[in-house]
Amino acid sequence: MLYAVYLQIFSLYFFTASAKLVVLNKENFDKVIGVTEIALVNFHADWCRFSQMLAPVFSEAASRFQGDPRVVFGTVDCDKQSELASRFHINKYPTLKIFRNGEVARREYRGARSVSAFVQYITDQLADVIQIVTNEESVRELLVAKKANIFVQVHDTASPLWHSIKKLASSFREDCVFFALLHVPIEKQKLLYYSMTANTEEYSDSLDNLDAVHSWVSNKCLPLVREITFENAEELTEEGLPFLILFYKPNDKDIIKVYTDQVMQQLLDQKSSINFLYADGNTFAHPLQHLGKSIKDLPVLAIDSFRHMYLFPDIKDLTVPGKLKQFVLDLHSGKLHREFHDGPDPVTAASPVVVQDNNVVFDTSSKPVENPTVTPVAESVFIKLKPSQSRYTVLRDEL
């Protein structure tokens, strides 16, 4: 039994390290991706002409990293692996997703589709991004204004803490800047967050608690709920995820906290498939007009799929358990899009309770409910930033 397990692990390692291109399916996906530092995965369909054009280029790029166990170029045939396509919300071909240490990155690869571009991109991803400093004072001079800045003092570079920090720096290389002071006395170890506008914040839990370290750094580098502005809107769009946006009154910051709390409670498992955002309703009055709303209607919650905007029916239901999550799930299942084109899905009433001979039974006959709720829809204000149809086969009009 032990030999069989060893053989399976060895075979997996050998296959990952030596194969030019790894064909992924639901059986091997997590095993391969979970042990790989950088994976570039091509979600494709054989009938898609853009997928056909990409295939030989992608294969040649993969061959350039043959024998490097840190890198996997993977392919997923979405027609054969519909579960994986659904899991990662694939709705255009080809979709190129990045996985770092087993976790899917928010931003897809949308660069040039050439061998040299792929090779350069992966080479850049493998580069060490932690800046080593000689003293803490020098960090202030190196801070990057538009990114989170993380500073760590580490005693031992062979320690689990340093290994964890290196993985975090790789995972958040596009969102955070990492600085490190090495070989300090063990009692001097610490982890700090530097902000250009706020006070320095120190991590207060045990540095031996690597899960807590991961969570703390993750929240600093990439807050679950972010503000969208005119300056960062295009960058957020490039992440390739639809938007869940709360439009709020500038003097009503309490609703942002309520919204953030509900996202934390209901939507943590959806963070890789949708961006949670809030926007100043005065600044973004134009999207409100598309929804038939104005400043006096704030707060307003909506999904922007980069084709349509779907209005959350009643903001009072924001704190009703499950309501917000169902709204997001209806986007991913295609229900919101389908109802926009075909009208509301039939809804059946709950089976009434009937008592017969002192036994409780249910009347299972389906009874349509009249006037089911229809989610108001408007055209997206971000439609010009959707994926180009000269590069993708889009399965439906939603990202």
Task: Explain how this protein is built.
- Pfam families: Thioredoxin, Thioredoxin_6.
- GO terms for molecular function: protein disulfide isomerase activity.
- The chain has a six-stranded mixed β-sheet with strand order 12-14-13-15-16-19.
- 31% of the residues lie in helices and 22% in strands.
- The chain has helices at 2-18, 29-33, 49-63, 82-87, 115-126, 139-142, 160-171, 210-221, 233-237, 254-266, 285-290, 323-332, 335-342, and strands at residues 22-23, 38-44, 71-77, 92-93, 95-100, 103-104, 130-132, 148-154, 176-182, 190-194, 201-202, 225-227, 243-248, 275-280, 300-304, 308-311, 353-356, 359-362, 377-379, 393-394.
- The protein has 399 residues and is of the alpha/beta class.
- The chain has three domains: 2-126, Glutaredoxin, CATH 3.40.30; 130-221, Glutaredoxin (3-Layer(aba) Sandwich), CATH 3.40.30.10; 225-394, Glutaredoxin.
- The longest helix has 17 residues, at 2-18.
The gist of it:
The protein is α/β, with parallel strands linked by helices and 399 residues long.
Give keywords.
399 residues, alpha/beta, Glutaredoxin, 5-stranded mixed sheet
The radius of gyration over CA amounts to 24 Å
Q: Note the beta-strand portion.
A: 15-25%
Largest sheet, strands/sense/barrel: 6 strands, mixed
The CATH level-2 architecture of the largest domain is identified as 3-Layer(aba) Sandwich
Which structural category fits the helices and strands?
Answer: alpha/beta
Number of domains as seen in the coordinates? 3
Low-confidence stretches: 1-19, 348-372
Gap between N and C termini: 46 Å
User: Looking at CATH, which topology of the largest domain would you report?
Assistant: Glutaredoxin
CATH superfamily of the largest domain: Glutaredoxin
Basic shape: globular
Count up the helices.
Answer: 13
- For the record, what CATH class of the largest domain applies? Alpha Beta
What level of helicity do the residues show? 25-40%
Q: What's the total count of β strands?
A: 20
**What value does the average pLDDT take?**
84
Order of strands, main sheet, comes to 12-14-13-15-16-19
